[in-house]
Structures are given as C-alpha cells and as structure tokens.
Amino acid sequence: MTRYLRLIRIFTGATLAAQLEYRANFVGAVLASLGEVGVALLGIAVLFGQPGTTAVGGWSFHEALLVVGLFTLTEGFISVFIQPNLSKIAEAVRTGSMDFTLLKPIDAQFGVSTRNMNVLRVTDLLIGLGLTVYAASHLTVTLAGVLGAAALYASALVIVYCIWLVLSTTAFWFVKTQNVTELFNGVFGAARFPVTAFPLPIRAFLTFVVPVAFITTVPAQALTGELTPALALASPLVAAVFFVGARLFWLKAVGSYTSASS
Amino acid sequence: MTATWRKVRTLFATQFAEMTEFRAEIVIWMLSGTLSLVMMLVWMAQAGNAPGGQIGGYSSAEFATYFLSTWLISQLMVVWVAWELDLDIRQGTLSPKLLRPLDPLWMWYASHLAERVVRFPALLGLVALFAWLAGARFTTNPTAYLAALGLAFLGFCARFLWEYTIGLLAFWTESSTSFQEVVWLVYAALGGMFAPLAFYPEWVQRVAVWTPFPYMLGLPAQLLAGKATLGDAGRGALVLTLWLVVFWALRLAVWRRGLRKYGAVGA
C-alpha cells in the first residue's frame, strides 16, 4: 500500500514538471474552463430568467446552481485525473507500449489510471468548488448533509471513473475508443440539470441506464436534505457494483491482450 | 474555367471518398452534440409543469419543434477545421499542402461539404425519429425549408471562416483551440441554443441582432418551426453576407501574416 502511495507521489511530481514547462497553455486551459462553466450557467440562467419561474423540476435557483457546481467539479475531475490517463490506453494498445505497463511489478490498472495528470485543468476544480460553496451558502445546510454529500460524491467519482475505464478498455478489442467516450460526454451533459428537470422516461434513463443522476443530483440532494434513504443507499451500491464490474472487465481485457506485434 | 471546374470536382470527389470511410464516426459525432437535445427536454418538462402548459407562448410540442430544428441546423454547421490547422501548423504538415497550386482553405472547405453529404441522410433519419418521440411538428411551407437551408449554408460558411481564423492563431499561440471553446459559447448562446432568442434579456437581444449568430442558428430553426417569415430570412441573409465579407478579409489578413511567421521559423 505504501508503495502505491509513493508511486502516486512520484507520478505526480513527474507530470507536474512536464506540464509546467508550457506555461502559455495555462491561458488556454482557463479559457476552456470558462467556456464549460459558461455553458452550464447560461443554461440555467435563461431558464430561471423567465418571468414567473421560481423552480426547475422542483429545484430553486441556488439548488440548481449546486448541481452546476458539482457538474463543473466532475468535469474537472475527468479532465484532470481520468481523461489524461485513460485516453492513452487506446494508443498504448495500438502501438504495443501497453507491454511495458503490463510487465511492471505493479498492478496494471493502477498504472494506467494514475500515471498522468492534466494540472492545467485544475481551474475547473476550483470553479466547480467555488460554485458549490457559493450555492450552498445560500441554502440551509447541516453538517450531516455535508458529510452525506461528500460520501455520495465520492461514490459518484467512482462511478464516473468506472464508466470511463470500461469505455476505454474496449480499446483492447476496438482500436478507436475516443468516439465512445465522446458519446458518454454527450449523455453526461444532462448532469448540468437536476434529473427532476427532465420528462419522466428520460429521468428513468438517466438513473437506471446511464446513472448520471447519481453523479450530480444525488449528492446535491444530500446537501439540501431532500435525499430519500433508498437513493442514499443505492449510490454507494451502484459504485461498488460498477467498480467490481470494471475491474473484472479490465482483467478480462488484459487476459486477451496479445501485444501489437503478434 | 474548365481547369477550375476540374479542381473542384477532384477536391470534392477525394474528400467525399475520405468521408464515407468515417460514416460510423459521423453518426457518433452527431449524437455527442447533445446540448440542444438536453435543453429541449428541460424546456419541455418546464412547459408541461407550467400553469396553462406553456412558457413564453411556447407549448411543450413547440419547444420540441424549436430545439429539434436548432439541433438539425447546428449539425449542418459543425466545423472542425481549427483542430486540423492547429495540428498541421504545430507538426509542420502544413508545408506539403502549401506546395499545391491552391489555397489549403479549399481542401478543408470541400472536406466539410463532403461530410455534410454523408451526414445528411442519417441526420434526417434521427430528426424524424426524435420528432416522432417528442411530438414536434415542422412547417409545411416548402419555401421555408429552402430559406432555412440557404441561411444554414451562409451560416456554415461564416462559421467555417471564423473557425479557420482561430485555427490560424496556432501560428502564434499553443492554445488556439481553447479560444474556439469560448467563441463556440458565444455562438451557442446568441444563436439560441439555450432558448429561443426572445427568451433572453432585452439588452442581450439588442446586442445579438448585430452579430451573425441569431441568423445562422435561431432564425433557420424558427423558419423550420413556421415561426419566422421569409422577410426575416432575407434580412438575415443580408446580415450574414456582410459578416462573410468581414470574416473573409480577416482570415486573409491573418493567413498572410501567419505564413510569413511560419516561413521564418519552419523553412
């Protein structure tokens, strides 16, 4: 365990050193972050800007803003930690450099998941966190709510990671996977709004088929104290099932890997 | 004349052949541009819950029509040339393209047009499916479709040119594609991807009419929904044409300066 922690520290140091060399890229990253949060904010701003509109799907403005904050935070998490690593799987399989990862005396899934980091998109994390705190400061929040939300959001991150891992792992069979993750991004875009803002059949789709609801809506509900116990239990359960499933899928993929040359 | 015609035909034929290879990807790209669809669902639910079943004079079905139309039009306006330029300039693969007796702009332009031909049938199928699911109804006036297509074409040309200009910034900066994200946001917002333009605050509307965005996205969508007149379309076409001239001049100026810089470093 300590070995893995030490490795994470070494990986982080190396990736930081490599990225801080290109300081001009920071401007670009900030612009991109602003663009993304802008889309989410404009979406709800226009909705609430209509005369007579005080709620969207039963959520007040600040409650909906909480969802936007968590959405931005998750986008940041994806672009800082998940995407820079997992998007490289496809290329590693194609060029055969996956061999090196598999030969190392550490768990290969750990290796492909932690090696890189896109430090520049930390701005997403900061904006997301800022929005969440700002929105929460306008609502009555209890300590239990905060703790519950934190726990549920941790489950949410596990779910996001697992979906990405499974999608990227398909690279062992299909060479191109970037498109599949694009498709997930498209569906994930719905997480900008609380799921109750959608018509009923879509809500079911976003809860049971692609569990987008668990990523932003459920933690936000925990924070506002409107969470039903069933959902509170479902979220970690879904995360656990996804984690085991993704792990098995990864092992099966690695098992069928025959290197690029053979 | 025949020489030019031959160039055009060859360009289009090769680019079309390339694009048909990507047909599976093209469908996936289409489905990943979901912002209008997400907004459609949210507004439909809002209208369904509102007293009287409508918001700002739009019923649930009218929202479906508007946003599906925006989705259709925005799909015709997808442009990725900035990414290609960014890559080509950074990796130096622009150089062989400069040797051809033709501005590289036309190659990319043809490739985008060819992609539209591949995209269109699948697009119509998806729109028909979504329209049936969401209960959208489009206008029955054939001239409205022609006008909408014409505006979409002008809009596409405008978008192509401004994206091209942004892509050319790769001569100077490494983050040219990020500028694109911010410009896309302005285009989506003022174009009416979040809501019909009439739903925006009044000062935003007053600014928007001077930009090309409402005429390339919202106006064709309103035409398809039967909520705009041909007179509006004519005015929109005029504004778009003026903007086209501006973007063309801008892109030419940036291209010339950029090439000088590229030659100084790369050759």
TrEMBL record, chain A:
<dbReference type="InterPro" id="IPR010390">
    <property type="entry name" value="ABC-2_transporter-like"/>
</dbReference>
<feature type="transmembrane region" description="Helical">
    <location>
        <begin position="230"/>
        <end position="250"/>
    </location>
</feature>
<feature type="transmembrane region" description="Helical">
    <location>
        <begin position="153"/>
        <end position="175"/>
    </location>
</feature>
<feature type="transmembrane region" description="Helical">
    <location>
        <begin position="125"/>
        <end position="147"/>
    </location>
</feature>
<protein>
    <submittedName>
        <fullName>ABC transporter permease</fullName>
    </submittedName>
</protein>
<keyword id="KW-0472">Membrane</keyword>
<dbReference type="Pfam" id="PF06182">
    <property type="entry name" value="ABC2_membrane_6"/>
</dbReference>
<feature type="transmembrane region" description="Helical">
    <location>
        <begin position="61"/>
        <end position="82"/>
    </location>
</feature>
<feature type="transmembrane region" description="Helical">
    <location>
        <begin position="26"/>
        <end position="49"/>
    </location>
</feature>
<keyword id="KW-1133">Transmembrane helix</keyword>
<keyword id="KW-0812">Transmembrane</keyword>
<feature type="transmembrane region" description="Helical">
    <location>
        <begin position="196"/>
        <end position="218"/>
    </location>
</feature>
Automatic annotation (TrEMBL), chain B:
<feature type="transmembrane region" description="Helical">
    <location>
        <begin position="182"/>
        <end position="200"/>
    </location>
</feature>
<feature type="transmembrane region" description="Helical">
    <location>
        <begin position="117"/>
        <end position="136"/>
    </location>
</feature>
<dbReference type="Pfam" id="PF06182">
    <property type="entry name" value="ABC2_membrane_6"/>
</dbReference>
<feature type="transmembrane region" description="Helical">
    <location>
        <begin position="63"/>
        <end position="83"/>
    </location>
</feature>
<dbReference type="InterPro" id="IPR010390">
    <property type="entry name" value="ABC-2_transporter-like"/>
</dbReference>
<feature type="transmembrane region" description="Helical">
    <location>
        <begin position="26"/>
        <end position="43"/>
    </location>
</feature>
<keyword id="KW-0812">Transmembrane</keyword>
<feature type="transmembrane region" description="Helical">
    <location>
        <begin position="237"/>
        <end position="254"/>
    </location>
</feature>
<keyword id="KW-1133">Transmembrane helix</keyword>
<feature type="transmembrane region" description="Helical">
    <location>
        <begin position="143"/>
        <end position="162"/>
    </location>
</feature>
<keyword id="KW-0472">Membrane</keyword>
<protein>
    <submittedName>
        <fullName>ABC transporter permease</fullName>
    </submittedName>
</protein>
